[in-house]
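#struct-help
A.M.: can someone run this one for me? Single chain, 138 residues.
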Amino acid sequence: MNSMPQILARLTVSGLVIVNLLMLWLVVRPSTAKTGQEGQRRGATRHRLLLPVDVDGSRLVKGITDNLSVGGCRINGNLDLRRGQVLGLRLHLPGEEFPLVVERAAVRWVAGEDVGLQFLSLPIGQRERLRGLLEWAA
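D.P.: on it. Structure tokens below:
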């Protein structure tokens, strides 16, 4: 027979899994994002994902992704970035302990508090993590 501490431990682990799945469900939107910039050509479909992101520029700042693809993302936040600037990113994926690391991303456009980024250097392991998330969200 299971003791009360073992039962509580199992319930806690099950509860954490459920909470992580609910968090992921809340940030994933079923349709692909409209960027408002239909004239641009992209090789990858962007998905509506709202994820916290740390931006490494001259200082560490935080933002939220508005959409995401294997090739880039749009970030919303009070970011002091300029077109052409190259920086690093850390995307915080729901239910995962370690953030997804984009070594180098280039700022392609800035419009108010929105910034469009193209991923220049994304290690293969990080790319596979991102592809897995995007396939799940599709």
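A.M.: thanks! The beta strands are 28-32, 47-49, 52-56, 60-68, 72-76, 86-91, 100-111, 114-121.
D.P.: also worth noting: Residues 28-39 have pLDDT under 50 and may be disordered.
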